[in-house]
Amino acid sequence: MRAPLVVFAVGNPSRGDDAIGPALCRHLDERLQARGLADQVELIEDFQLNIEHVLDLCERRLALFVDAGEQTPAPYQFARAVPSTVIGHSTHALPPENVLGVYRQTEGDEPPPAFVLGVRGECFELGEGLSQEAQANLGAACALLEALLDDLSPEAWAARCA
Predict the structure, then answer these.
(1) What gap in Å lies between CA 136 and CA 17, rounded to an integer?
(2) Number of domains forming the structure of the chain
(3) 101 exposure class (CB count in 10 Å sphere: 0-12, 13-18, 19+)
(4) Where are the beta strands (DSSP E) in 56-132?
(5) At what angle do helices 20-35 and 132-149 cross, to 10 degrees?
(6) CA end-to-end span of the chain, whole Å?
(7) Which domain holds residue 81?
(8) Closest CA to 160 of 106, 101, 79, 88
(9) Whose CB among 18, 23, 91, 118 lies 3.0–4.6 Å from 69's, allowing a Cys bridge?
(10) Tens of pLDDT along 26-85?
């Protein structure tokens, strides 16, 4: 049986603030273990979203996509993701909405309710660590994740959207 919630943490730990997704994934893993919720959530860390991630949505009740964003309002933006009806020509580096759209197309069903947590990053240079700004934004995003873990229902998460 699959965990009801899947979390996709996207980013490259070698590219400065692009490491926000993987850092949030590590934090979330620790919190899930501490709260006894590890069997409720599957964490998937990757450099980018690919068409194959559609299969990770099967049999889920909820999905969360986490990534850093250079143009994201600080400290983060949390929003509902809706399936895109326009699928690009690439089979890799898909935005969450396209992953959901491909799910709809290939599975012939609606994807699970999905949300995007975009955390503001400032510096994405190769070989850099997290910037001070990103660390502060990461702290705020971790606090949101803690609150989201209190109620793993789409309705509770939708109430927290901007």
Answers:
(1) 11
(2) 1
(3) buried
(4) 62-69, 76-81, 114-120
(5) 30
(6) 33
(7) 5-159
(8) 79
(9) 118
(10) 999 999 999 999 999 999 999 999 999 999 999 999 999 999 999 999 999 999 999 997
